[in-house]
Amino acid sequence: MSEQKKIAIIGLGYVGLPLAVEFGKVRPTVGFDVNTSRINELKEGKDNTLEVHNEDLAKATYLEFSCNENELKDCRIFIITVPTPIDSVNRPDLSAIISASETVGKLLKEGDIVIYESTVFPGCTEEICVPILESSSGLVFNDNFFCGYSPERVNPGDKVNSITKVTKITSGSTDSIADEIDALYRNIITAGTFPVKSIKIAEAAKVIENTQRDLNIALTNELSVIFGRLDIDTIDVLEAAGSKWNFLPFRPGLVGGHCVGVDPYYLTHKAEQVGYHPQVILAGRKINDGMAQYMVKKVVQKMLLNDIDLTNCTVGVLGITFKENCPDVRNSKIIDVVSELKNWGIKVVVVDPWADPIEVKKTFGISLGKVDIEHQVDSLIVAVGHDEFRDLDANSLRALCKGSSPVLADVKSIYNRDNLIDKGFSVFRL
């Protein structure tokens, strides 16, 4: 029975670690990652992603951490949770999942199960990963070893909808394996599971979740552009429309992160492989990918109208993570804002109390700075809704700016616009 099988979690990022901790509370589990510094920090009972509290780490008494493949030899269930990003031309980057499959393949034994949680296009598990497992192990799929797919649904920084409180989609390569995988997850997922008929269905369900969200945000972003030309405040319009019970409460914004801005490209990649060119999905992606450029253009226009000298000014950007109250900078679109400002010859200072300065420097090549009374700027872009920024009132924001008529771009629409105007700001919001 699966209850007696030791589990290996391959990849200990935002997805893998919470999963490893939950399994490690109830059964023998090995958390594996190729990053030795990550393993060392976890062995010390710390998680720099802030997804797992130190107390929860301590409760996982059956959990071991390792970067040594040899320590996985007695594991019988392998759950792969490595990143699946896109490359510079928006194609799926499967290098991590291919590498993980090669590693696991070398360890496979008769009757072992490999479960993938990483976001992929429909068919990826069976068409790409399984042949690697067979080649690396010398075993035959569905005779000697088995597979499943159970998509991650982690929402980084969300302490309410945590891993155990979100329904888990499960699937397996045979009926009996599907049942075993479903039972495995039911041991830790209090919200319950949702078994589906095939691995492909589970893969497709995951990839459309964020595609749907992406398209809804794209619609509000396009509305923002239209209403901007009509001199209508988008949020005022959306709040009015939202008075109807069936109006969906999406808001315009920069779409980044490891899922929403990435997953649609996995689906469109597969669609084009089978001879269909997606129009709506790619149109939505084009709109969302262009919002940073649009926003900076509008901010620059306001700065010029206020006689701010672009060549001798500094803009403070508050926030670099892809979402609020989270240190995750993966695929953050704020860097597009920074780059576009620099293209105009504007000096930029980025501030973020949640981001790791070393990680920001490594990922984006920029150094975090200061914006305060002693380090004032000519204009502000509040790009991320961290609590620290939400707590700032109009007076506090004005104290960060010099000059008589600074511009404030409220990307997340977190402030009272009238209060900002009263303090002398020219306000822009999507």
List segments where confidence is low: pLDDT < 50 over at least 5 consecutive residues. Answer: none
List how many beta strands DSSP finds. 13
Distance between the termini: 54 Å
CATH hierarchy, class of the largest domain: Alpha Beta
β-strand amount: 5-15%
Can you characterise this structure?
α4 packs across α5, α7 packs across α9 and α7 packs across α10. β7, α6 and β8 form a beta-alpha-beta unit. The strands form 3 sheets. A 6-stranded parallel β-sheet has the order 3-2-1-4-5-6, with helices on both faces. A 5-stranded parallel β-sheet has the order 10-9-11-12-13. The chain has a two-stranded parallel sheet with strand order 7-8. It is built from 16 helices and 13 strands. It has 430 residues and is an alpha/beta fold. It folds into 2 domains: 198 residues, Rossmann fold; 141 residues, NAD(P)-binding Rossmann-like Domain (Rossmann fold, 3-Layer(aba) Sandwich), CATH 3.40.50.
List the helices and strands and how they pair.
Layout: E1 7-10, H1 16-24, E2 29-32, H2 36-43, H3 54-59, E3 63-66, E4 77-80, H4 95-107, E5 113-116, H5 124-137, E6 146-149, E7 168-170, H6 175-186, E8 193-195, H7 199-229, H8 234-241, H9 263-273, H10 280-289, H11 291-305, E9 314-318, H12 334-343, E10 347-351, H13 357-364, E11 379-382, H14 387-390, H15 394-399, E12 407-410, H16 417-422, E13 426-428
Parallel strand pairs: 1-2, 1-4, 2-3, 4-5, 5-6, 7-8, 9-10, 9-11, 11-12, 12-13
